[in-house]
Design a protein that fits this description.
heterotrimer, A mainly alpha (286), B alpha/beta (253), C mainly alpha (280), B: alpha/beta, Rossmann fold, six-stranded mixed beta sheet, C: mainly alpha, two-stranded antiparallel ribbon, 2 strands
Chain lengths: 286, 253, 280
């Protein structure tokens, strides 16, 4: 009983990690930049979710607004921050991103206070029973919603013109350009989708914990980095599997190793161990 | 005479592709050996197996008595190989002379401890100047590599390799990208360096220069050695003619 | 006077910490996002030994050895992964350190270690010791730069593969950089612990790793003078402008971003460019 429960919990966490990590992997696959500031959009989505729901009493509206705002904010980040430094060595973008992330966490703290906000009437908190397991509606939303979106994304990537264009810009930008693919547009779209996903994840997490606070992005951002490394940078299916794996590993790890390591340490210990055995990542295609 | 380098039955496979197939040849001290073949013949892979960038699937490479197979690249270089790369990559923030002096300092940079204990660069700078003179670009000593044309950079690559005082010099397509006048001049320099006693393996596409300066040719096609002859006999060898003029070409490189 | 002395001591410790990272990231080009872990190892090592009765000065070499030893292990691990992964692996090490220390009651758990015994030095003497060690570290860094080791580090930072083709045992040199940088961080940590008399896991987390990285980056990667200046300014900034205190992280993050966006070679790079322009 405990076993299945742990797996279920792990999958819920994993779904959240997956949503955040996906945006990150899309950006890495495209630009070879580790876009740490991505998690700021996660936090942004969370705050918007709570604010809009509290104001207009509609979770659906909140979700849409959060996705749109995060999406555009992400594109803005690309335009202002990354585009001008694409030609520099990769560590420049990484450090710039980290600086941006730290600054944005502080801005959230200054704007909204350090103690966070909650829903006035938290939606989707009712319990649903399936077989042995009992989930909150919100948890089901996270898992199913996450799975749906990832499935749609994977389909888009391989079947539509836009998706194939995205892949082309990664493997050979110059060739892609000569085929008439607008690099800028592809990149904007990528950032929009990835950032929108993060915003959505933020709303969902806010539902799970009924709390948004300025540092809620930290842990997902670092974990997301670990996940995309595990999953083989740039691979959507790899990222998904790695996210789920990490969620489950953490779930079991905190129970069995909790005396020795805290949750984050377990995640990173797992990452380091995997990298030692398989330096290219767990699910990377050689 | 004992060979300086012995390539024994080397096979290199990547997944399902066989890039080099049971190739053996020797290099004698003082030789200028040309390693040629059409595109995709496996020359680059063969060179990579000698230098240590790839591990042979089968077979082994010996430098005099020393088995190279287990050694990483830097160990092979310290054992006496030197490589002049096809894509020239000088250190951009230091002068031409300092680039070569860095290579000349190989004794002092053997270990971190020795490197830490040595500050003086005068000996190495002098060695560098000697190497630069040998390849004919001593006047460029104080220049920055960032502003030099390809011809000068190719000579810088060679000078860096020579400054290592190797037993065997591997030149990977040194004439690529040069016009016919520059290629002729660089080929002359290579021949001169060989005349002064350096053993050289030359991998090249530019057949006219190769024919002119090499003393022996090893010809690869589709991963196999198809000829090991004097230059004047190579072009009349039917197998070589087939390789260059007819038949299928696979991109194995 | 007491306030000024404590400020200078704190700044000195920051400088030492920043110079230690400069050896790894600045000179040798290996990005480390978990350097605070080694600062922490030195701090905890010295704190525990002092509480057990060892004289303060004697704990310093132990702190350096332990931090440097773990540094070599991490360095060995880092050799296996490529550049992108190195940043994340070192970040992982940082989290691992905090995560482990937090759960060990023998190390004080979440509350940390308090009541670290008196060092026997007066405030002024401690400050002097810190400054002496700072100057020594700076001089050592400059010496490394001028030596052949510095040349090798530069080469590795610019083009690792070509450096190997020139016969340099690159992994060994990277390990040397890690060993020296982490040992020095351990020393800084030991000083930190004995200055504050109290340490907790929170002081050695990701934010602290980013703070010290920002000192190296803003100063100008590799430049001893630049890094020293940046460390002094950034550590004193919150006290100089007390209203900044609350916004300290915002300033660090913002500066980090702006610097990378507009002048990736730091203040040193910007100054060099200005001077070159002035000459014309």
């Amino acid at each position: 009983m405990l076993f299945i429960d742990l797996i279920a919990q792990g999958l819920v966490q994993g779904s959240i990690y997956a949503l955040v990590a996906l945006g990150l992997t899309l950006v890495y696959g495209l630009l070879r930049i580790l876009h740490v500031a991505h998690a700021a959009l996660f936090t942004l989505g969370g705050y918007i979710g709570v604010l809009v729901t509290n104001q207009f009493d509609s979770l659906g509206l909140a979700m849409v607004v959060a996705i749109l705002v995060s999406g555009f904010a992400g594109v803005l980040m690309y335009r202002l921050c990354y585009e001008p430094i694409l030609h520099r060595p990769p560590f420049v973008a990484l450090i710039a991103s980290i600086g941006l992330f730290i600054a944005s966490e502080e801005i959230f703290r200054i704007a909204f206070g350090a103690y966070g906000m909650s829903y006035k009437n938290p939606p989707l908190q009712a319990q649903v029973v399936i077989g042995f397991l009992s989930f909150k509606q919100a948890e089901l939303l996270v898992m199913i919603g996450g799975a749906l979106i990832i499935g749609v994304l994977a389909l888009l990537q391989s079947k539509t013109r836009l998706g194939i264009a995205c892949q082309a810009t990664v493997t050979d930008p110059q060739m892609a350009e000569s085929f008439g693919i607008d690099l800028k547009k592809v990149r904007y779209v990528n950032f929009f989708i990835g950032s929108g996903l993060a915003g959505m994840a933020g709303v969902m997490v806010a539902l799970l914990n009924n709390l948004v606070e300025p540092t809620m992005g930290s842990v997902p951002s670092y974990k997301a980095l670990a996940i995309i490394v595990l999953g083989g940078l740039g691979s959507v299916p790899g990222t998904l599997m790695a996210a789920m794996t990490l969620g489950v590993v953490e779930s079991f790890g905190t129970i069995y190793l909790g005396k020795l390591l805290d949750r984050n340490a377990i995640a990173f210990a797992f990452l380091i161990l995997v990298l030692m055995v398989r330096p290219q990542g767990l699910f990377a295609r050689k | 005479m004992k060979p300086l380098l012995s390539v024994k039955n080397v096979t290199v496979r990547f997944g399902g592709l066989t890039a080099v197939d049971d190739v053996s040849f020797d290099v004698r001290p003082g030789e200028l050996l040309g390693l040629i073949g059409p595109n995709g013949a496996g020359k680059t892979t063969m060179m990579r197996a000698i230098v240590g960038v790839v591990r042979p699937t089968l077979g082994s490479v010996f430098l005099e008595e020393l088995a190279l197979n287990a050694l990483p690249i830097d160990a092979r270089i310290r054992a006496g190989l030197a490589l002049s790369q096809q894509l020239v990559k000088p250190f951009r923030e230091i002068s031409v002379q300092d680039n070569v002096a860095f290579a000349a300092a190989s004794r002092k940079t053997r270990t971190p401890a020795t490197a830490l204990l040595h500050v003086d660069a005068r000996l190495e700078r002098q060695s560098a100047l000697d190497a630069l003179t040998q390849v004919g670009i001593a006047t460029y000593a104080d220049q920055s590599p960032k502003t030099q044309p390809l011809g000068i950079l190719k000579r810088l690559e060679m000078a860096r390799a020579l400054a290592l005082k190797p037993k065997l010099l591997l030149l990977d397509e040194p004439l690529a990208g040069l016009n016919s006048g520059e290629a002729y001049a660089l080929a002359q320099t290579i021949a001169e360096v060989n005349r002064q006693g350096m053993t050289i393996i030359l991998i090249e596409h530019n057949l006219s220069e190769v024919m002119r300066i090499c003393q022996r040719l090893v010809v690869l096609d589709n991963g196999r050695k198809i000829a090991d002859t004097l230059p004047k006999d190579a072009m009349s060898d039917p197998a070589v003619q087939m390789a260059y003029l007819g038949g299928d070409k696979h991109a194995a490189d | 006077m007491e306030y000024e002395i404590s400020l200078v001591t704190a700044a000195g410790i920051s400088v030492l910490f920043a110079l230690s990272l400069n050896l790894i990231t600045g000179f040798c080009g290996q990005i480390s996002l978990g350097h605070a872990a080694f600062f922490g190892i030195g701090a905890y090592c010295s704190a525990m030994l002092c509480k057990a009765g060892m004289p303060f000065l004697l704990t310093l070499p132990f702190a350096m050895l332990l931090a440097g030893g773990v540094g070599v292990v991490v360095g060995l691990a880092s050799l296996r992964v490529r550049a992108d992964f190195l940043a994340i692996t070192t970040m992982g090490v940082g989290f691992l350190f905090v995560g482990v220390v937090r759960q060990q009651d023998v190390l004080g758990g979440e509350m940390g270690i308090s009541g670290i015994p008196d060092t026997g030095f007066s405030k002024l003497a401690f400050m002097t010791l810190t400054l002496v060690l700072c100057v020594a570290a700076a001089l050592f860094s400059q010496y490394i730069r001028r030596s052949w080791m510095g040349q090798v580090f530069n080469a590795i930072a610019e083009d690792e593969d070509t450096t190997r083709v020139l016969g340099i045992d690159v992994p060994r040199f990277k390990l040397a950089a890690f060993a020296m940088g982490t040992a020095l961080a351990g020393l800084a940590g030991a000083l930190y612990a004995n200055n504050l008399k109290f340490i907790s896991p929170d002081s050695f987390g990701f934010i602290e790793s980013m703070t010290v990285l920002s000192m190296v980056v803003i100063g100008g990667i590799g430049s001893v003078l630049g890094v020293t200046a940046a460390a002094v300014v950034l550590s004193l900034l919150p006290s100089m402008f007390t209203f900044i205190g609350d916004y300290k992280l915002l300033v660090y993050g913002g500066l980090l971003f702006l610097m990378m966006r507009f002048s990736p070679d730091g203040v040193t790079g910007a100054v060099n460019r200005l001077m070159a322009k002035g000459k014309r």
